[in-house]
Amino acid sequence: MTKLATVSQDAPDVPAEALPGPLQDRLLDAALACFRRLGAKRTRIEDIAAEAGIARTAVYRHYQNKRAIVASLASRWLAEDETRLATIARDTGRSPAARLQAFLLADAENTRRYLSDPCLVEVLDEVMKNLAGLLRQHRNHIRRHLTGLLAEGSTAGAFRSEPAEKLALAIDDLMSRFHDPRLATDLDRNVWQDRALAAVDMILRTVRAR
C-alpha cells in the first residue's frame, strides 16, 4: 500500500475586512511568528503590530480582534489543504482508484502534520473550540471534491453505481477519526499510519465496481 502522503471567502467566521491581501498576509505572517515565539494565548495585538512593523491601530483596520486573525490564519491553512486535495482529485493521469487512495491518505495526513508544530496545535485548538464553522465549511468543500471524484469513477465503471454524494458522506464519516487532531495524537505515528492505510484499503475494496 502507498505511504501517507479553498476555504472560500464567504466563510461565516471570517469578517469581510479580514479577507486575504498583501497587508493582511503580512499581518498573518507576523501573527504566526508571534504565536511561535510567545504562544497564541500570550500574544497581544501590540505584539503582532510590532512584528509587522506597523501601528497597533492599523491592525484593527483589518482585523477586529485576535480571534479574527486566528480565523484568517486557519482559513489560509485549510485553503492550502483544499488546493492539494483538489489537485489530486482532478489528476486525470491516474486511475480513479489511485486518485481516491491518494486523496483519502492526503486528507488524513493534513490533520496529522499540524501536530508536528506546537504553535499550530494551539491555534487549531482555538479553531475547534470557537470557530467550528470554519471546519464545517472545510469538510463540506472536501466532500465536494470527493463527490466529483466518485462520480467520475462511477461513470468510468471503476466504482459502484451509487449516488456519489451519499457515498462521499459515508466515506468521510468512516475517515473522521483521522480528521480529529485530538484523536490523531493518541497513537504512535507508525501505528496511526498503519490504521489509516488499512481504513483506506477497506474503502477502496468496498467502492470498487463488482
Describe the sheet with the most strands: none
Gross morphology is: elongated
* Beta-strand share of residues: under 5%
Instruction: Provide the residue-averaged pLDDT.
Output: 83
Radius of gyration: 19 Å
Features:
elongated; mainly alpha; 10 helices; 210 residues; disordered N terminus; single chain
Question: Can you offer a commentary on this structure?
Answer:
The protein is 69% helix and 0% strand. The protein is an all-alpha fold and 210 residues long. The longest helix is centred in the middle third of the chain and has 24 residues, at 66-89.
What's this model, at a glance?
By secondary structure, this protein is an all-alpha fold. It has 10 helices and no strands. The radius of gyration is 19 Å and the shape is elongated.
